[in-house]
Amino acid sequence: MRTWTCNNDLNQKKQIIRVFLFLFISFLGNSCKVLPSLDTNPIEFLSALRVLEKSNHSQDNNSQSNNSEGESSSDCTSNCSTDGSVSVQINYVNSPFSLTTGVSSLNESPVLSGNPTYFTVSPDLPFGLKLDSGSGSISGTISEVVTNADFTITGTADAKSAQTTIRISSVIPAACADVSITTGVGTLADPFQICNPLQLQSMSTHHISNPGSYYQLTQDIDLSSISNFTPISNITNQFTGVFDGQNHTVHNLTIDNNATSHQGLFGYVVGGATTEIRNLRLSNANVRGNAQSGSVIGLLNAYAKNIHSYGAVVDGFADGTGGLVGRFSGVGSIYDSSFSGTVVGGGSYTGGLVGDSFGGDEVVRCKGKGTITGNGAVGGIIGRAAGTLVLNSYWMGSVTGSTEVGGIMGKGQLTDGKTKFSYSVGSVTGTSSLGGLIGSITSSSEESYYNINVANQADNDTRGIPKTTTQLKCPVVPNDSCATTAIYTSWDTTIWNFGTALDYPKLKWENSL
């Protein structure tokens, strides 16, 4: 409690008056004020007293002031904002963070005040790390190399918010010393072990004499020492077997063969249900190829599970260019996978995940984000889907082409060439046959939506259902009519996380990356 001081020469009468006024003010509960001197300016003193009394009577009887301007708050004891409520503060005490890709796990909770309940981060955290939007905690194992990268985290409580910046740096672990593949025998129980760039490159010939074998990546690998990587397998020497990345990352893949088709880390993968590329991540891949090229696989006639390519640039000079896979053919599935980056197709059939797909294939529980540019049949997930189903997937980004351009797929053909329980948020630009979800289709989509505020398309037909940003974000459960219309009626809550009313739905596997 603050009081005012007196001059030493005040007479006893003035002292008594002061004590009386002091007790009166204390009774009113306004002990945070400093009054002017009665001796120097009695009028100012009395005016200040009237202001104090008026301020007190306007408060809630239970409130206590802790602010020099006289505002009230029910819980303000420190860190007060200008309206008298507790201010929002966020602090990650261990920042900056120095991490090793594929090795370092982070589980960091912020020190908070003001009870923020919703958190966002900009730009996106490095791949492998995630921000819990409800608590502000950061967790995961980093997969991406960053150097002194800053990330701004915003916490919001009611109408108040605060920001803080964290800094992250990461390095790739040192490679093992073995030059050739010497560990393992290629079986499920004892797979061939890959732990450095030379071993991974040697797979382009090693797999020929070991068809149907099992390979396993044992740590993150940096391919920046190889200026032009030779794809593992081609149309003549096709890859069969299983490659398990064990959630490790191949960094800095560079392929520059624009006159040769089937370019990617793996060139030509076949074998149906007995062949699989799984649990693999690529960071900052740069691939230039001819027809049927992608960052991970050129042509796939098999299965791919949990494969992710982020920060990639894929440049195809002919038909069939995809962020993950150039051409998906036969009977197989790509599921629980993602792409972020840039795809440029010099011919037709260009897609964020798959350029061209033909057959009874499925793309299931996948997502993409970035910029896709091509000619005919350009889509955020698939350029052309001939008999291919896109199920429980979403795209965020821009899609540009000439004709048959769509947010999820550019061209859907045959009975199963359609989307189910999927959505798109992004611009769609072209000259003809444009759709916020699908450019052209001979069948139909089912419970699939696109953001009409972003797509600049207004079709409402069998190709997709337009919804506003609010309508797509506000539901927290399926069949939620929070934005005046029911949406996501049959969407599976074991697959989708609807989050808060401020988020688009996300796939539940995203929480495990």
TrEMBL record:
Gene3D superfamilies: 2.160.20.110, Immunoglobulins (2.60.40.10)
Biased composition, class Low complexity, residue ranges: 58-78
InterPro entries: Ig-like_fold (IPR013783)
Region (Disordered): 57-78
Name of the protein: GLUG domain-containing protein
Organism the protein comes from: Leptospira ognonensis
